Automatic annotation (TrEMBL):
One of its GO terms (molecular function) is transaminase activity. The keyword Transferase applies. The lineage of its organism: Bacteria, Pseudomonadati, Pseudomonadota, Betaproteobacteria, Burkholderiales. Pfam families: Aminotran_1_2. NCBIfam families: PRK06108.1. This is Aminotransferase.
């Protein structure tokens, strides 16, 4: 009889085993069985995708859009996206656009295109963990440069970032508007970083999935249609890959549809990677994406106005709590604030969900520099935010925190 006994425990690769599990999931699991949790922990609105987009998907399904598509997306969607990007950020042709299965997949594809084992990657943190963990799956080494928190909220120390972008760096991963802080990189900083990266041949992957959720403040200022983007500065055929998504600006998180803007010279190789990852985004979802872009301008404009009002509402309500340090961030859909008792933010968030039915994301989920903070997604109506703030207030009072 051959010896069929396993020789060692069947484990995943070391790089995979070393990935950090999601602390937000850990908090959500702690709330399992707690009735009536108010969930502000995930990055999505409590509103369903608008009817005109759902109807377009139904019509596409009814007409039989159930087959594989081209790896890089159906031609009409690529053309529509090229027009959309051109209007926001300057001339862009369909050959620079690829359709992806939402932003996460776009980030993975972008990393797979340029990063390999042993490569040095730099990321600005606190940051949604996927951007830091994805290069690690590929065996890369990720260095982080932390934003600093002060009177103006979260700020980038540009010289520190430039210092970290050494000539042997392969890739800079940036996310602006930023999850979790709401930080928005200034156009001047983008210009300086881009020039530096050009000089050293460093790739930039700019995660701009929140570009439309931008609240350009200032007296009498008209809201800008988009946050400053690397696409405003970079030529389409240089080492810049921009990642975007339908999830946030059209409330399509569950649809898994996004896109990449990248040099045309990458597209054949990108097509191969799409083939081996997902093959394509679903055909009827891609068709609904065309409708989202072509008919969604007013919807997104109203959504951004609602989000701004919700942000201001939440910041006002939280400011009234003793010991809470909160500032209105210029972008995305989160308030990332400090509060007494959050020195161990994971433990605090677990206690909040168990004892108060309040679901927040711990700052430590976004890197060690996020410790002491919690993230609150404000993409919901103000009454729900008020209910959440009441629960937080009750918890702080019961525990004598902040007195
Ligand atoms: C910074 C950032 N990038 C990318 C994504 C990806 O979103 P999706 O995969 O739904 O497009 C998210 C989602 O929360 C995000 O916060």
């Amino acid at each position: 009889m051959p010896d069929l006994a396993p020789r060692a425990t069947p484990d995943a690769r070391d790089a995979v085993r070393a990935l950090r599990p999601s602390q937000i999931r850990e908090v959500a699991n702690a709330g399992f069985g707690v009735p009536d949790v108010l969930p502000f922990w995930f990055g999505e609105s409590d509103r369903v995708t608008p009817p005109f987009i759902r109807d377009a998907a139904s019509a596409a399904l009814a007409s039989g859009a159930t087959f594989y598509t081209h790896n890089l997306g159906i031609a009409p969607l690529r053309a529509t996206l090229a027009r959309y990007v051109s209007e926001l950020h300057g001339p862009t042709s369909a050959e620079h656009v690829a359709v992806t299965s939402a932003g996460v997949n776009a980030l993975m594809l972008a990393a797979q295109l340029v990063v390999g084992a042993g490569d040095r990657v730099v990321a600005v943190t606190p940051l949604w963990p996927n951007l830091v963990e994805i290069p690690k799956i590929l065996g890369a080494h990720v260095e982080t440069v932390s934003l600093v928190y002060g009177a103006q909220g979260w700020q980038l120390e540009l010289e520190r970032l430039l210092g970290a972008l050494t000539p042997d760096t392969k890739l800079l991963m940036l996310n602006s508007p930023n999850n979790p802080t709401g930080w928005v990189m200034t156009r001047d900083d983008q210009r300086t970083v881009l020039e530096h990266c050009r000089r050293h041949g460093i790739w930039v992957v700019a995660d701009e999935v929140y570009e439309r959720l931008y609240y350009a403040d200032g007296a009498g200022q008209q809201a800008a249609l988009s946050a400053p983007s690397f696409l405003d500065l970079a030529a389409r055929d240089e080492r810049v890959i921009c990642v975007n998504s339908f999830s946030k600006a059209w409330l399509m998180t569950g649809w898994r549809l996004g896109w990449i803007v990248a040099p045309a010279s990458l597209m054949d190789d990108l097509g191969k990677l799409v083939e081996y990852n997902t093959s394509c985004a679903p055909a009827f979802v891609q068709q609904a994406g065309i409708t989202a872009i072509e008919q969604g301008a007013a919807f997104t404009r109203d959504l951004v106005a609602d989000l701004r009002a919700s942000r201001d509402h939440l910041v006002r309500a939280l400011s009234a709590l003793r010991g809470v340090d909160v500032k209105a961030p210029p972008g995305a859909m989160y308030v990332f604030f400090a509060l007494p008792g959050a020195a161990h933010s994971l433990e605090l968030c677990k206690a909040l969900v168990r004892e108060a039915g309040l679901g927040l994301a711990p700052g430590s989920a976004f890197g060690p520099e996020g410790e002491g903070f919690v993230r609150w997604c404000y993409a919901c109506d103000p009454a729900r935010l008020d209910a959440g703030v009441e629960r937080l207030k009750g918890y702080l009072e019961r525990h004598g925190i902040g007195r």
